[in-house]
Structures are given as structure tokens and as C-alpha cells.
Write a sequence for this structure.
């Protein structure tokens, strides 16, 4: 299976390839998968406190915000809200009425579709954090294109690391279980960390995926990508099962 790989905010294709290297090595070792890394098109600068974590520039994002302080979701993460369930938390974090803040969802999708045409075909997609949001959004958009335009979807399976729910490009609102009928119907693997302070985002994404083929893998750490050998082997086996389910 050939995966298109999308980094998180402030990432790049090169840095994400480094982050994902142990996982890729596990799946390449037996011919299970191959990987192509891409990145967002919106230049950005990480917060000063995290420059070492994100590595040297350039840095990119997929989603462009309107520049108003407080509209960017990353500005709010320092005061991540509590809630009864993941959907309540995401509503508080991303209130309705601020949809104009997320300006370029359709442009980001169009760029990825061009990458898929140029570098594909692809069978699967991998996204980390913001990249997971865009990956999930594209899966739903492929389902829309099948219904509206008769275009067969390329993506048959998805892996989300520390994911977030998809966004409806036309309304720029989050897709949440208790507000929407949208369902990601392909096999998915949700790689979460029990100590991730933003785990509600990952669970809100999990909740809009078809439960019978949605795999939840907890590496027990934070908002990170696992790299230790034992965890990578276990994750590789889970992904192999998901690939079999994708047909």
C-alpha cells in the first residue's frame, strides 16, 4: 500500500519523514507499504519555545487562518478546555461563527489532489495532528466527489497520529458525531497517547469513523509519534490488519 504522508502544523515533508522513520522502516521491511511525504503550502514560524522541537526552517501549515489573534486554534491550545465528551470540548475550542478564520481548506485539498495525480496513485493516507485533520477532510471530500461527480476515491485506508476531526470545506465547520451524518467509512488506525493533553481531538475524529473498521492504538505517551521498537512492532501489526480489511 502506498501512503501519502501529511505532517502536522509547523512541520515539513523532510521533518515528518524523520519523525516517522522507525514506523516506515517496519512496514517497508516486508513490503507492506511505501511512503511519499508532502507538506502544506502556508509558510509559518513556530513559537520560540518550540523551535528545537520543530527543527530548522522552513516550516509550513496546511490551514491558513485570518491572522486575528485568538482565531488560530494553535493560540488556544495553552488553555485547552474541559468537557463532558470530545464533541463538547471541540465545540468550545472551535466555536461556530468563526468559520471565516479557516480560509483555505478547499485550496489545501486541491493541492493534495494535484500531488496525488502527479505522484500517485495512492492507496492510503497518513496524517499527524493538523495533517490528520486535512487527511480526514480529504477522505470525506473523496466520498462527496464519488456521489456528485462519479470519481472513484483513491484512498482506501488511513492512519491518524494524534488526530483532529475533519472540516467541511464549504462551511469550514468541524464534523462532530452528535452534529453530523458524515462518516469516514474506510478502515482507519487512530494512534493516540493516553497522556496527550489534546486527546479529545483524537477521540472526536475516532468517533466519526466507521466503528467496525476503526482501530484504536494507544502508545501511552503524549502528543507525539511513537518510535521505540516494541511499540512500532505492535503498531505495524495493527496497520497490517487494517490494510487487509481495506481489500
Amino acid at each position: 500500500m502506498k501512503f501519502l504522508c501529511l505532517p502536522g502544523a509547523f512541520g515539513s515533508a523532510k521533518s515528518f519523514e524523520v519523525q516517522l522513520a522507525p514506523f516506515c522502516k517496519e512496514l517497508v521491511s516486508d513490503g507492506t507499504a511505501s511512503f511519499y511525504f508532502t507538506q502544506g503550502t502556508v509558510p509559518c514560524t513556530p513559537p520560540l519555545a518550540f523551535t528545537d522541537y520543530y527543527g530548522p526552517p522552513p516550516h509550513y501549515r496546511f490551514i491558513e487562518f485570518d491572522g486575528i489573534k485568538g482565531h488560530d486554534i494553535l493560540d488556544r491550545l495553552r488553555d485547552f478546555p474541559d468537557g463532558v465528551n470530545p464533541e463538547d470540548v471541540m465545540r468550545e475550542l472551535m466555536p461556530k461563527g468563526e468559520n471565516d478564520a479557516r480560509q483555505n481548506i478547499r485550496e489545501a485539498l486541491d493541492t493534495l489532489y494535484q500531488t496525488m495525480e502527479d505522484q500517485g496513485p495512492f492507496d492510503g493516507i497518513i496524517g499527524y495532528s493538523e495533517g490528520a485533520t486535512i487527511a480526514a477532510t480529504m477522505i470525506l471530500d473523496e466520498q462527496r466527489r464519488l456521489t456528485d461527480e462519479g470519481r472513484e476515491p483513491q484512498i482506501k485506508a488511513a492512519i491518524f497520529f494524534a488526530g483532529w476531526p475533519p472540516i467541511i470545506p464549504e462551511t469550514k465547520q468541524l464534523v462532530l458525531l452528535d452534529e453530523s451524518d458524515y462518516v469516514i467509512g474506510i478502515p482507519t488506525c487512530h494512534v493516540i497517547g493516553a497522556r496527550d493533553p489534546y486527546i479529545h481531538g483524537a477521540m472526536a475524529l475516532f468517533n466519526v469513523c466507521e466503528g467496525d473498521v476503526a482501530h484504536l492504538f494507544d502508545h501511552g505517551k503524549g502528543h507525539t509519534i511513537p518510535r521505540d521498537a516494541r511499540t512500532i512492532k505492535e503498531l505495524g501489526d495493527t496497520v497490517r490488519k487494517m490494510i487487509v480489511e481495506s481489500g
